[in-house]
Amino acid sequence: MKYTPGTTVIKLLLAICILGSSFSAIAQRQLSGRVVDSLGKAIPGATVADKKTKRYAVTKEDGSFTIAVGNNSVITVSSVGYASRDVRVGGSDRIEISLGQASAALNEVVVTALGVKREKRNLTYSTQQLSGEEIAKTREPNLVNAMAGKIAGVQVQSSSGTAGASSRIVIRGNSSPTQDNQALFVVDGIPINNDETGNGGGNAAGSGVNRVIDIDPATIESINVLKGAAATALYGSSGARGVVLITTKSGGAEKKPLFTVSSDLSFEKPLLPERQWTYGQGNGGVFADGNTVKTSASWGPRMDTLKINGKPAPTYDPYDFFRTGVTTNSAVSASGGNGISSYFVSYSYYDQQSIMPGNDFKRHSFFAKFNTKMGPVVNSTFQLGYSNSTQDRLPEGASNGPLFVVLVQPISWNPYPVLDSAGNMRLYRGSRNAPLWDLSNIKNNAVVNRFLPVYTMNITPASWLTITERIGADIYTEQNKYYENPQPAISLPGKVVDNNTTFRQFNNDLIINGTKSFGRFNINLLLGNNILSKYSQVINLTGNGLTVSDFYNLSAGGSISSTEGHYLQRKVGFYAQANIEYNRMLNLSLTGRYDGSSVLSTEHDFYPYGSAAASFIFSELLKGDIKNTLSFGKVRFSAATVGNDGVQPYSLSTPYIQAARTTNEGTYNYPFENQPGFLLSNTLGNPNLRNERLDEYEGGLELRFLHDRISFEGSYFYRKSHDGIIPGVSISNATGYSGTTVNTASIQNKGVELLLSATPVKLRDFSWDLTLNFTKINNKVLALYPGITQLGRIIVGQPYNVFYGTRYKRTNGQLLIDANGLPVVDDQQGIVGNATPDWLAGLENTVRYKQFALSFFFDIKKGGDVENDVESAAFFYGTAKVTQNRGPLVIPGISEVDGKANTVAVNAQTYWQSRQFESSIQDGTYIKLRNVTLSYNVKPSALTRTPFKSAMVLLSGRNLWIYSPHFTGADPEVSSYGSGNSVQSVYAFSTPTSRSFNVSLKLSF
After folding, report:
1. What is the CA radius of gyration of the chain?
2. Strands (E), 598-691
3. CA 796: distance to chain centroid?
4. pLDDT tens-digit readout, 536-567
5. Diameter of the chain by CA atoms?
6. Which residue spans within 275-321 are E strands per DSSP?
7. First and final CA of the chain: distance in angstroms?
8. How is 806-855 classified by DSSP, letter by letter?
9. DSSP track, 87-105
């Protein structure tokens, strides 16, 4: 072989490497093991680090790890939520390490902004968490309703008892004068849409559906609510209203699949408004039969004296129109995994047949999550949520829907037969539809398909550093079809409406998160970038005047009109957060974000904001008996400024809109005779729009006593909005426009949030837990626009959303009565009510005895007025319960004639039919026994010879008792026209709330 210097060098290097490896092998060895909790359950994701060499390993799904160590090495084992532990390596190559929790409460891990997990003890702001179990036991299909009354600082309001009806959630009060005030929903780090859909474009009146209803509660692991600006600043503009973080379930470490099946069955009975059952149809005590003489009034004779054809007149119950509601919910899931991958798959079918005929809601939900380790430093998760929902409902409110008639129908009227001999609709009055006719001749159907894909990749190049790339989307389509047949009896021409909505939202976050310890300091630094794109398209086609019976196609319309809208909005954000902990006692959190929004002017499209927060865990200084009594104490303070681009796209410019031609026969949109037409909008665009700004200050105190048997958390906050965006503010017609969009509003909110938890009894087989939350928020409108002090129900100097309208004159607080004995109507309209509650509270008790658990939850609201339009109409028609006294009435008050107490009597019908807007405002105070649940978990030992691992039977009831002393409807928690700002607390002929009873069975195998 020929000698070459290069060959010799290569051989020498190989020999050195082999020798070095031999020495290394002698100095080090491979240690394998497993990390478990105190119950022996594997802890995945724990960090095992050699304190000397800094080498580390991360445990797999089964808790196993392998790491190179020296003979005398000391390894540190740590995991979020567990007490860290140092272990000296002995002579064995195999080890099992158990991590304990000194206090489950103190080491509680919660999900914070961007999905980052942190120990609750180190948080510098207020947050409250609900488990998936708490959500599931409410048996609510809508997540928003499942949170009602359970979280301090949060107000939830249902719109109606309609199956699939929308609900509204507001955190710490309304801060925007006209834009969306509801909280942002985030699923596994991805913001999702919660708009109310299905109630526009000429279809059925009433509330629509808030889109969070597409989320299956059975797939939820936990819900965490971030309340203040310091907690939500990382979420950009949308987070200014508070954030609801939803964490979905994941697979387990079991190698064999774990299957879970559950089935629910419930029955609902309507809770109906009070009414009089004594007098029949007519006026002035004279009977009207509704056939030869028609009237909407029930001021006729007493039914017990009325005879028809010589026979006692029968009484008909208008409430027979309602039915017993039936709801079923079936779900099946599978989960499992191994040391590398895990999975969770779920399917459910929810079917609600409402108490209201013609109202049903059905939802198919599919969810899958797959997690896998793609090497020692890369972990990825892909998940997909899909739902298909169908809702059928009839119009509500002051419309041609059935409820406007049913709730004030005379008890002397027989609704059968529905049609007369000529085939026309029968009705006792000269307008409106007959309720039973509606069931066959009006239909509103909405079909929604929604996809929620999320892909997350976590790269951990070092034990202290994680890089996360997360991309997700929210995509749904809604097809809404509405039709009503023509009806000559009330000159109804009939129409068909097709309303189609397409929504797409894409979100991407790149996050770098590092945590390092330096002596007594523990420092966490987070950097990130966010890109958000939102697009929606709405197409509406309306065919008026149906020309072909029973053919509900647009081509059957006598005239066809259409509208189309496209909306695109983009945002980009850069954010950073630093969390500094000293000696497990002092915490400082600094947050900054710089956002850019496409809907703002080019001079103001980028805007900065941020927060500073600190906490002091003073219990770390306590010792001895004091420490045993007060196991944890913390004070916290924060100041934050967040931005909000709450304006619709294209508000910077003045768009062209579809023109219309008005004739003696009505108004017709272009195109007219094949000629299109467009005009500039009457609302002038404002090219100088900038972001709204919200400043907030918060202080809090957290205490835990007697080893967490008692815990308390209290917060006080003050927030003030600036540069609030108001679209359509009136301007001088000399400009050629009627209004424009401005940045001038300001609203103030301040309040107190209290949360108290306790375990009064804790024995081996028996325990009692209770939780009480309390919220008091005062808000005030500080400014709107120069020269404007009122926008509908929003008035400067008053709380947000007062009731304003016709009222009565008073003297020294008493009604002023005229010479005829009637209250004097004020010439000037004024404030007659306030929709904002004085305070809110919730009380939950859970009692456990062996395998049994009983929980009951009271939801309480003090104050907060409601506009009861049903009662107002019932005054006039004579069906309200108070009208049962038909004798002459002497109205308490001061006579304007002589200044003395009124003694002049007035005819009852005259009095009640002269009632003004003020009379429809009622105090909405209530106490609800919202949920009662009794469950039994079968002992695992009783299942050893069965294929099942667990079994549970559950009985529950909802709205079992409602106490509302000042409200004549059944349930004052209502907003019949949906979740919009201006229609809150209006009760107007919507589907009543129901009382439900549920039985559930859940098995795992």
Report:
1. 33
2. 606-616, 630-644, 656-658, 660-663, 666-669, 678-680, 683-684
3. 28
4. 999 999 888 888 878 888 888 888 888 888 99
5. 135
6. 282-283, 286-287, 307-308, 311-312
7. 70
8. --B-EETTEEEE-TTS-BPBPSS-EEEEE-SEEEEEEEEEEEEETTEEEE
9. EE--S-SEEEEE---S-TT
Instruction: Extract the runs of DSSP E, i.e. beta strands, from 27-165.
Output: 28-36, 47-50, 56-58, 64-70, 74-78, 85-88, 94-98, 109-111, 117-119, 127-131, 154-158
- How many of the other CB atoms lie within 10 Å of CB of 670? 15
Cα-based angle 841, 845, 847 (whole degrees, multiple of 5)? 180
In angstroms, rounded to a whole number, what is the distance separating the alpha carbons of residues 206 and 392?
13
What average pLDDT does the structure give for the chain?
A: 89
With a CB cutoff of 8 Å and minimum separation 6, the contacts of 311 are none
Give the Cα separation of 548 and 552 in Å (integer).
8
Quick one: which H or E segment has residue 790? Answer: strand 790-791
979-999 as b/e, with b when 16 or more CB fall inside 10 Å? bbbebbbbbbbbbbbbbbebe
> Rounded mean pLDDT of 469-494?
90
Helices in 732-858 by DSSP H: which ranges? none
Residue 95 in contact with residue 85, Cβ under 8 Å?
no
719: Cα separation from own chain's centroid: 21
Q: Are 384 and 453 in contact (CB under 8 A)?
A: yes
Place of tokens 């009480």: 772
Question: Token digits for 725?
Answer: 């965006």
Separation CA 239–CA 235 (nearest Å): 5
Across residues 122-146, what is the average pLDDT?
Answer: 89
Q: Which residues contact 540 (CB under 8 A, 6 or more apart)?
A: 201, 202, 497, 498, 499, 500, 562, 563, 564
SS3 335: strand
Q: Tokens representing 56?
A: 């580390």
Instruction: Name the most confidently modeled range: 128-142, 486-500, 519-533.
Output: 519-533
CB 888 within 8 A of CB 907: yes
Cβ(125)–Cβ(224) below 8 Å? no
The residues facing 65 across adjacent strands are 33
Residue 502's SS3 state is strand
Specify burial of residue 69 (Cβ count, 10 A radius: 0-12, 13-18, 19+).
Answer: buried
Q: How many CA atoms lie within 13 A of 74 on its CB side?
A: 5
Neighbours of 407 (CB within 10 A): 25
**Cα–Cα nearest to 532, from 576, 575, 477, 500:** 575
DSSP state, 745? E
* pLDDT greater than 50 at residue 12: no
DSSP 8-class letter at 313: P
Question: What number of residues does the chain have?
Answer: 1005
Residue given tokens 């979420």 in the structure block: 235
Q: Are strands 127-131 and 282-283 parallel, antiparallel or unpaired?
A: unpaired
**Residue partners of 507: CB distance under 8 A and separation at least 6:** 190, 191, 471, 472, 473, 474, 530, 531, 532
- Global pTM reads 0.87
Closest CA to 970 of 978, 958, 961, 979: 961
